[in-house]
Amino acid sequence: MSSGVVGIALIVAIGALMTHSVGWTAAEMSVLEGFSRIHTGILDAVSLGIDFLFSPRIAAVLLAGVAVLILLFTRRWRAAVEFVVLVAGSWLGTEVIKYIVQRPRPDSSLLAHPLISETSWSFPSGHTAFAASLALGFIVLARGRSWRLLIVVAGILLAVAVALSRVYLGVHYVSDVTASLLYSAIAVSILAALWNRYIQPLHGRHRNRGAN
């Protein structure tokens, strides 16, 4: 757990360094300019759809809906709550990092085909963090299941697709989405460890008291 905290601290420190590095930002901006020159109608539609689906308000509704489905299918309120804690806790942490690092968004005026404009801080990517945390939440809940490998593969594809869409749209640097993927893996691991250490034993003690 302590190593995870150190990992997050390193991500924040690296983000701060990149924010104040003109050369690094220029190099990453050239990558976005390259992506902007190869836009197609299909990729535009897919990327804009992902942008909408994983936007903060829609993502919150999606998370609540998934939690309800987990409760309905498993009949285990603890599983639904654990899922929300893992995903929401990790996702909201990105907002804290954004305000610490305060990296400006890529300059959309330099792009050949800008599709959307974002004004919030850039590092790390909230859309990517939500997708990665959502996937990791499912992976944690699927522990011990025979179909967990399928969830892992699907989760990786989802997180990578969202990360690429943010770079394609030119609203995040490659380092923003990379940091989000790393951060989400660490944050969900920390939250899962805390859940197993402090919350899970409480559930066990409550069940034992009920049996007595």
Structural commentary:
The protein has 8 helices and no strands. The longest helix has 38 residues, at 174-211. Helix 5 runs antiparallel to helix 6 and helix 7 (148-169) runs antiparallel to helix 8 (174-211). It has one domain (2-211). The chain is mainly alpha-helical. The model has no long low-confidence stretch (mean pLDDT 90). The chain is globular, with a radius of gyration of 19 Å.
Which regions are unreliable across 5 or more consecutive residues at pLDDT < 50?
none
Structural class estimated from helices and strands: mainly alpha
Largest beta-sheet details: none
Span between termini: 35 Å
What is the approximate shape?
globular
Averaged pLDDT: 90
* Quantity of strands, as a count: 0
Order of helices and strands: HHHHHHHH
Our count of helices gives 8
Using only CA atoms, what is the Rg? 19 Å
Strand content: under 5%
Question: What is the total domain count?
Answer: 1
Question: Into which percent range does the helicity of residues fall?
Answer: over 70%
Short description:
This protein is mostly helical and 212 residues long. It is 78% helix and 0% strand.
How is the topology of this model organized?
Layout (H helix, E strand, L loop, with lengths): L1 H18 L2 H15 L4 H13 L2 H19 L2 H25 L24 H16 L6 H22 L4 H38 L1
Helix pairs in contact: 1-8, 3-7, 4-5, 5-6, 5-8, 6-7, 6-8, 7-8
